[in-house]
Each structure stands twice: as C-alpha cells, then as structure tokens.
C-alpha cells in the first residue's frame, strides 16, 4: 500500500464513488468532536470559569488550531492511512517509539470510543427503557456493532452516515443557539462576574476535551483524491465549525441560566436552558441531539482502526493479523477494536477513567508537534507556530494533570496500565518478529 494517495486520470464518476470530499472528511472530524463532551462539559467548566466558559472554548479552539496547523502541514506532506502515527514515523523512524505510540493510540482510542458508546446507551435507555440500567450496556454494545458494520462496508458509508448525523446535530444545536442567544440575559455574561483569568486558563484543560476528535481527520488521507490540498482544508473546516458551535452554545447557556444553575444541572444544562422558550420540546430535542452525537462519535472513533492497522502492519509495527481481511471486507484490526470496545463497555466502569482520553491525546499531540520541528524543512511549517503549539498543548496538559487527573487515581492507574501494555505489545511483537527467519531481500520499512 502506498503511503500517498495519488491517482491518475479517472472518470469523474469513479472518483466520486472512491474518494471523500473535503466536507465529508471534515464531518468525520466534527462527528468525533461534537459527541457527548459538550453535554457533560458545561457544568464542570462552569465550576472553574464561571460565565466565561465561552472564552475558555475560544482559547481551547486556538490551542486545537495550533495543533491542527502542525497536523495539516504533516498531512499535506505525508498523506497516509496511518494518519498522525505516520507523522511520528517520519520524524522518529519505525522504532520502538513509533510502535509504543501506535499501540497507545489504538488502546486509548478504544477506551474513548467505548465511553461514547456507553453515553449513547445512557441516553437511549432514558428514552426507551426508563430506569432499567441493564439496557445501558445493551444499547452501548448495539451501537458499537452497528457502527463497526458501517465501517466494514467502507469509508463512503462512514462519510455518508456522518454527514446525516452531523447535519442533524448541528441543525438542532444551531436552533438551540439562536433561540437562547435571542432570549438571553446579557447581564449574566457581564465580565465583572468572570473569575480571575488564571481560572479561565485552567478551564481550557476541560474545554479542550471537546476538540480531541480533530486528530481523526488525519486518517482520512487515504480516502481523499488530493490529500495534500484537501486534508488541511478539512482540518480547519472541522475545527472552525466546532469552535463556532461550542462558543454559541456556551453563550446561550450561560446567558440564560446562572452559573449555579448550570453547575447543578450537569449534563442536562443545555436542555434546561432551552426550556424557557422551547418547553418540554427542548428536552426531546436535546435527547435526539445526544443520541445522534454519540452515535456519530462512536462511528468516527472506529473509523481509524482499519487504515491504521493496515498501514502499521505494512511497516512492521503491528502483526500482519491486524491487516488481514476477513470475508473479503472486514479488517481484523477494525473487528478487534470493536470487540475491545464492547468488552470495555460491558465489563468496566468507564466513568472512573473518563480523563484517560484527554491525557493520552495531549501527550501524543505534544510529542508529534515536537517531532515535527525536526522535519519542518520538509513540510514548510513555520518554527514559531510549532513552538507556540508545543507550549500551548504542554501548558494545557500540565494544567490538566494538576487540576483534574490528580484527583482521579483510577485514570492515573489506567494510564500506567495502558502504557505498560503498549510497551509490552510492541517489544513482544518485535522480539517475536526478530526471531523469525526471513528472506534476505525482505526488510521492514525504515
């Protein structure tokens, strides 16, 4: 498999059937970002930033945009199904560092996807099964199975499903934003009521969680006709859409409810804010939005598994089994990811390790951009922007550790277990591989 996705002249119809558009690639990212996070974040962020949560989202969007600049430059130069892990390999080689990072990403993404699936299960259960908690696990497993099936059919179906989901989610959230902004009380957003600026900065560690899904866009390179040009456009389009909708929602909620009310409302804050003008219909609208958003995030979370497994198996980082196609279409890497998600959703309390995705993503993002500095001459990236991206992401991670992660021992233990497992898988596989006889003319990619 080529690391680039160039194609010779082809009929327009076949290109339409084979490749994704910029909008479709961007919507895969938007679907990954606008998941359950926005519903759960407002109360937690409000405890730290008060009514200035909208400003926290602006700052988080800037931090994500700086990382997006780095990823877009790398993706334009090295478009690959391996996505952001291809960038690690280009900067540091195909050694243990890349292998451990690959397994770390694969495992952490499975945990985050399982969490989103459980969120879908919670909303679906409250809608269709009342208080029966058993159904949460059932619905969570069901959405993983359905979305794994969507990914088996192919990237076009993934993109089409995400397009429908994102249009529904953005449509409802836009209606919510307009209704609340038109009817909001500006005095609730008065700067005089904002907490100290350092508290607003601290809250960025929370609001940045809502942007983590943008990294998934890097894995669409294999499905773009001209990834060098289209991948950066998709990246910034997705980040722009997410930032605008997040800021509008934060302004609408905190311009309608007091900070204390938002905090006490928790995950239902958006529905509570919609009730003054939309009544009970607001609750149903937000429930529908949550179902679509979490379904879309599950779909997008599974999307990288197939291309990632194939590319990393090709370069020797994953066992060949991970790239094997079962029944002609189903990638073993995708099926294993789906199975791990179901096991996690059914057997573990994922609420206790809710911060694991943020911690892993922030570390990986910072490492990739730091590695980018070494090869910036090949990508054309500007050093000051890369340095600013590293400092910004590093600051968010340090803040995140001391404001959130330090209070979640289960997340810290899980992070260490995932790291140990990633190291064990990488070293175990490569030790096994090195002991196998191979033809002299066959070498792993370096």
Q: What this model shows, in words?
A:
Helix 2 (22-33) crosses helix 13, helix 4 (53-77) packs across helix 18 and helix 9 (197-207) packs across helix 18. A hairpin with a 3-residue loop joins strand 1 (325-326) and strand 2 (330-331). The chain is mainly alpha-helical. It has 19 helices and two strands. The protein has helices spanning 12-18, 22-33, 37-49, 53-77, 84-92, 96-128, 134-153, 155-183, 197-207, 227-254, 259-265, 269-278, 280-302, 304-314, 332-347, 356-372, 376-379, 383-403, 409-434; strands spanning 325-326, 330-331. It has a two-stranded antiparallel sheet.
Count of alpha and pi helical runs: 19
Order of helices and strands: HHHHHHHHHHHHHHEEHHHHH
What gap, in angstroms, lies between the N and C termini?
15 Å
Write down the overall mean pLDDT. 85
Quick summary of this structure?
With 446 residues, the protein is mostly helical. The chain is 72% helix and 1% strand.
Fold topology:
Elements: H1 12-18, H2 22-33, H3 37-49, H4 53-77, H5 84-92, H6 96-128, H7 134-153, H8 155-183, H9 197-207, H10 227-254, H11 259-265, H12 269-278, H13 280-302, H14 304-314, E1 325-326, E2 330-331, H15 332-347, H16 356-372, H17 376-379, H18 383-403, H19 409-434
Antiparallel strand pairs: 1-2
Helix pairs in contact: 2-8, 2-10, 2-13, 3-9, 3-11, 4-9, 4-10, 4-16, 4-18, 5-6, 5-16, 6-7, 6-13, 6-15, 6-16, 6-19, 7-8, 7-13, 7-15, 8-10, 8-12, 8-13, 9-18, 10-12, 11-12, 12-13, 14-15, 16-18
């Amino acid at each position: 498999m080529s690391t680039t996705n160039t194609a010779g002249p082809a009929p327009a119809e076949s290109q339409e059937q084979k490749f994704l558009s910029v909008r479709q690639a961007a919507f895969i990212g938007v679907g990954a970002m606008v998941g359950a996070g926005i519903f759960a974040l407002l109360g937690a962020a409000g405890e730290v930033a008060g009514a200035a949560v909208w400003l926290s989202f602006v700052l988080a969007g800037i931090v994500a945009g700086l990382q997006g600049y780095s990823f877009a430059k790398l993706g334009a130069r090295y478009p690959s199904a391996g996505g952001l892990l291809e960038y690690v390999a280009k900067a540091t080689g195909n050694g243990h560092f890349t292998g451990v990072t690959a397994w770390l990403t694969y495992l952490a993404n499975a945990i985050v996807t399982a969490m989103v699936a459980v969120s879908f299960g919670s909303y679906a259960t409250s809608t269709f099964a009342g208080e029966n908690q058993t159904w949460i696990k059932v619905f969570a497993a069901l959405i993983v199975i359905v979305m794994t099936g969507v990914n088996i059919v192919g990237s076009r179906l993934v993109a089409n499903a995400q397009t429908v989901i994102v249009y529904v989610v953005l449509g409802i959230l836009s209606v919510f934003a307009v209704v609340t902004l038109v009817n909001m009380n500006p005095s609730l957003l008065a700067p005089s009521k904002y907490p100290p600026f350092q508290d607003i900065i601290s809250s960025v560690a929370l609001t940045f969680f809502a942007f983590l899904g943008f990294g998934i866009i890097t894995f669409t390179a294999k499905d773009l006709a001209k990834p060098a040009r289209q991948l950066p456009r998709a990246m910034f389009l997705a980040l722009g859409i997410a930032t605008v909708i997040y800021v509008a929602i934060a302004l609408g909620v905190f311009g309608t409810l007091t900070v204390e009310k938002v905090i006490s409302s928790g995950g239902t804050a958006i529905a509570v804010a919609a009730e003054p003008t939309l009544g009970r219909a607001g609750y149903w609208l937000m429930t529908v939005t949550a179902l679509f958003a979490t379904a879309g995030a599950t779909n997008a979370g599974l999307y990288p598994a197939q291309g990632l497994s194939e590319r990393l198996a090709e370069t020797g980082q994953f066992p060949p089994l991970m790239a094997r196609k079962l029944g002609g279409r189903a990638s073993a890497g995708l099926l294993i990811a789906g199975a791990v998600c179901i096991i996690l959703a059914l057997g573990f309390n994922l609420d206790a390790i809710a911060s694991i995705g943020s911690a892993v993503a922030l570390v990986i993002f910072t490492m990739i951009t730091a590695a980018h500095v070494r090869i910036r001459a090949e990508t054309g990236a500007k050093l000051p922007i890369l340095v600013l991206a590293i400092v910004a992401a590093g600051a968010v991670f340090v803040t995140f550790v001391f404001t959130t992660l330090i209070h979640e021992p289960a997340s810290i233990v899980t992070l260490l277990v995932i790291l140990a497992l990633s190291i064990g898988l990488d070293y175990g596989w490569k030790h096994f591989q090195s002991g196998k006889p191979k033809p002299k003319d066959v070498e792993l990619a370096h």
